[in-house]
Amino acid sequence: MHIKTLAERAGVSVKAVRYYESRGLLSPERATNGYRTYDDEDVRIVREVRALLSLGLTAEQTHPFVECLRAGNDRADVCPASLSAYRARIADIDARMQELADLRGQLAGLLAEAENYTPEETR
Description:
Elements: H1 3-10, H2 14-22, E1 29-30, E2 36-37, H3 40-54, H4 63-70, H5 80-115
Antiparallel strand pairs: 1-2
Helix pairs in contact: 1-2, 1-3, 3-4
Organism: Nocardioides pocheonensis
GO molecular function: DNA binding; DNA-binding transcription factor activity
InterPro entries: DNA-bd_dom_put_sf (IPR009061), MerR-type_HTH_dom (IPR000551), MerR_fam (IPR047057)
């Protein structure tokens, strides 16, 4: 199938397909006329990559999942490298949550100080 058909079937833009290809996530065959050709596995890969990107993984972090699918697995997340990628993303989220909690605490403290502020009497 051509790139436009792949994009339509996977629910992404042609530009997204080209981006995934540039990141090494897709390796289309070339027809004798030079056009890229894709197959059903590519549709599956693009759908998986899109889902992973929506979870905040980077294109680079999706490589283990793509490799897992290409290895013939029914799911992209059953391989050890995919599980490691999940763990790394969870750790990133946990760290960000802690940063946000710390920031919230600082802001709440400043708000409390501001709400309770009474100016000193000037002499």
